[in-house]
Amino acid sequence: MAKIKHNNFLDTVDEVISNATEAGVIHLNAEGDHLNGRKIKIRGKESYHFGTTGYLGLEQDMRLKKAAVDAILKYGTQFPLSKTYISHPLYSLLEEKMTAVYNHPVIITKNSTLGHMAVIPTAVRDEDAVILDHQVHWSVQNAAQILKTRGIPVSLIRHNSLEMLETRIREFSDKAEKIWYMADGVYSMYGDFAPIEELMALCKKYPQLHLYFDDVHGMSWKGRNGAGYVMSVLNELPENVLLIGTLSKTFGASGAVVACTNSSLFRKIKNFGGPLTFSAQLEPASVAAAIASAEIHLSDEIYDLQSDLQEKIWYFNQLLSQTVLPLISVNESPVFYIGTGLPATGYNFVNRLMNEGFFVNLGLYPAVPVKNTGVRITISRHNQLADIKALSEAMEYHYPLALEETGNNFERVGKAFRLEISSPKTTAKGSGSLEVQYENTISRIPEEEWNKCMGGKGTFDWDGQLFLEKVFNGNEKREHQWSFHYFIIRDEYKNSVLSTFLSNSLWKDDMTAPASVSKKLEETRERDPYFMTSPVLSLGSTFTEGEHLFINRKHPRWEEALKLLLQEIEKLSEKVRAEMVVLRDFEKDDTLAKIFNDEGYIPAEMPESCVLEDLDWKDEQDYMERLSSRSRRHFRKEVQPYEDKFDIRIVQNPHPGEIEKFYQLYKNVKQNNYGINTFTYPQKLFFSMAESPNWEFIVLKLHSSLFEGTEPSIVGVMFCYKNLGITYVPSLVGMDYKYATEFQVYRQLLYQTIKRAKDLGFKRIDFGLSASFEKRKFGATVKRRLSYVQTEDNYKMESIGMMRNES
Predict the structure, then answer these.
(1) Is residue 503 classed as helix, strand or coil in its secondary structure?
(2) Second label for 184, Cα 20 to 30 Å away, from 336, 558, 601, 738?
(3) Residue 679: partners with Cβ closer than 8 Å, 6 or more residues away
(4) Is pLDDT at 429 greater than 50 in this prediction?
C-alpha cells in the first residue's frame, strides 16, 4: 500500500527558494552608495524600482531622515531597556501623535510580527475560538499557533469565503465565548481587500464575532490621516475590532501600532503582551522618523500624497486594461499581480524585465500556490508616469515571449487562476515528431511494449494493471471507483521515449498526517464519510508502489517528452477535476527535480522504500551470514525460535471462507494503522486475488499443539504478487493482533516472504514503503524517495498542517 509521507515543510520551501535563487530572481543585493526610491542598482545595472512597499515614498523624505539623524546624535543608537520599565524620551510623543492619527488609543510595538505575538495571545481567551483567512499574513498565523498550546481551537477558511466563515461561526457558537476572525485589510500578494462591510454585517448577526485585522499593506495610502484601508471603511473602530497598522512600509519608519478601543483589553495588552514586556523597544532614530511621518499624516499633505499615488495606480490600471496581461485582481490598491502559472515562466519573465531595467518581485510558494506563481508589481510615488508606461510596454512585449520560451500559454495561465483570459492564442513549443498515445485501459496498450518498459516493477505489469481495472471499476462507493490513464510517448521511429500510467481516485487529505490527526478526523467521518477528502490524479495508484514513470534518458528528446507529458497531465487533471496531482516515487537528487519545479510541482518527502535484491544465498545459514551482526542476533532471537510454531502454507486459490478470513485480518491491520490512512479496500479486491494466477497467499496458522481443545485460526497472511518471474511483491498484510506480539507474526511473515521468493527464483522483492526499520533487519536495502505535488490551492494542505501542529 502506497504511503506518501507528509513533506517536511522547511525542506520543501528551501528547495523552492533555492531554485528561485539559482534562477537569479530572489536573494538579490542592492548595490551603490545611495538609494533614491525611483531606481535601484542590481548586478551592476540601474533599474526602475517596482518592488517597494513604501508606497508613498516617505522613507526618502528628508524630514524623516533628518529626524532620525538628530535622534541618534541626541539619544544614541538605541535605548536598551524594556519599554515596560521606562520608554526613551520620544516614545510618549509618538504615542500621542498616533492616537491622533487613529482617533483611538494605540500601543507601539517593535514590528508587526512581534505585535501579533503580543496581542493575539492576550486578546484571545481560553474560552474563545479563532478562525483564520487562509491567506492572512504568515505573522498572524504564526502567532495564532501559540493559542493551541492552551487548547484554543484555531481553524482556517478559504480566502474571503463568507459562506464558509458563517458555517464555522455556527459550529463554534455553542462552544466559544468569543469567535475571532483574523484577516488582512489589504492582502500582500494580489492586492485584494477583506470584505469589511460584509464582515461587520456578520458581527451584527453574530454578536460573538470579533474581528482582527492586519492592515500593514493598507496603511498611509488610504484613509483619514492615512490610518489605512480598514479605517477608511469603518471610520470609527468598534470595540469588537482589533487593528494592527505599521510604522514601517508606507509609513516610512519602523515599528507597528495596535489600535484598540476596549479599555480593559488595551490595559492587559500594554501591561503584559509578551514581546512588549521582554523585547527591546524601538530605537530613537526609528521613533523620531515615525514622529516626523505622523506629523505629515496629521496634516493635509497626506491627502495630496494619497492623491498622487492614486493617479499613478489609476494610470497603471488603464495601461494594463489595454494589454492581454493577466492581472489577477483589478482594484485600487498599489499592489498588482500578473499571473504566470508556471515558476519557470515567472523566472523567465522577471529576468527579462530586469534585463530591460525594471525590478519587480516574484510571487512564489509558499506565499502563493506553486501553480499560481506570478510577478508582483508595486506602484509608489517614486515611480514617474513615464516609468510606469515603459514598464507596461516591456511587460506586454516580454510576457508572450516568456510563455513561449517556457512552453506555456495564455490558456494554461487562465486555467491556473480560474480566469477567463481573452488573449491571442500562444502555442507552446511544438513537440515535433513526438507522438502521444493516450488510453484509458491497458487493454489498448501493446502488452509486449508495456512490459518492456514497466514489467518487473511493483504490481503494475500489463496483467497487474488489467487486474486493478477490473477490481476498481463498477463499484458503488466513490472511494472504490477509480479511473486509469495510460501514456506512451514515441519518437518518429516508434521507439518508446516515455511510458507511465496515472489513476484518478478519492484520497483522504490526512493520508500522511499523524495518527492523532487521522483519529480525530475519523470521528467526524463516522457521520460524514467524505469529510476532508479530495479527488487526486496520481502517478500509479494507492495500491501500487515503485517507479511508475519509465523514461529512456539516453534518448536525445527525453526532456521534451517529459514536458509534453506534464502538459497532458495538466489537461487530464482539468478534465477529471482533480484537486491535486501527485507524481510519485522518485529518487532524491534526481535531475527531474528542476523540471518538476519549473512546471509547478513542489517536492514532498516519502517514506523510505525497501527492496531486497540479494536472493542468491544457498540456505538459511548462508542467508544469515549476509546479514549484519546485529541483524543476525535479531534473526536468531525473533525469527528462528518461532518458525516451528506455525503451520505455513502457500495458498493459490483460497475458497470463499478463507478469503473472508483473510479480509478480516487485512482490516485488523488497516484499522490499527492510522499512519497510513487510506480508504479500506473492497472485499472484491481479495476475491479477485483468489481467482488470479498472479496472486498467492502466504498463510500462517499456529500449531494445534499450542492450544488445548480449540482449533487455532489463521493468525497472519501476506498477499503477494508475482511479476513476470522478476519481482515478488508482498503488497498487503493481515494479522490477528491477539497473537501478533507473542509469536512475532509480522516478522515471520517477512521471513516466509523471502523464502518463498527465493524458492520461486525471483530476482528481487519489492517490500514497499512501510516498516523500513523491520525490513532492514532482513537485509532489505533502503532508498529515499520523493513525490512532487501540485494543488489547486494551499488551503487543504495548510488545514491539515494546522491540525498536525495541534497533535
Answers:
(1) strand
(2) 601
(3) 479, 480, 506, 508
(4) no
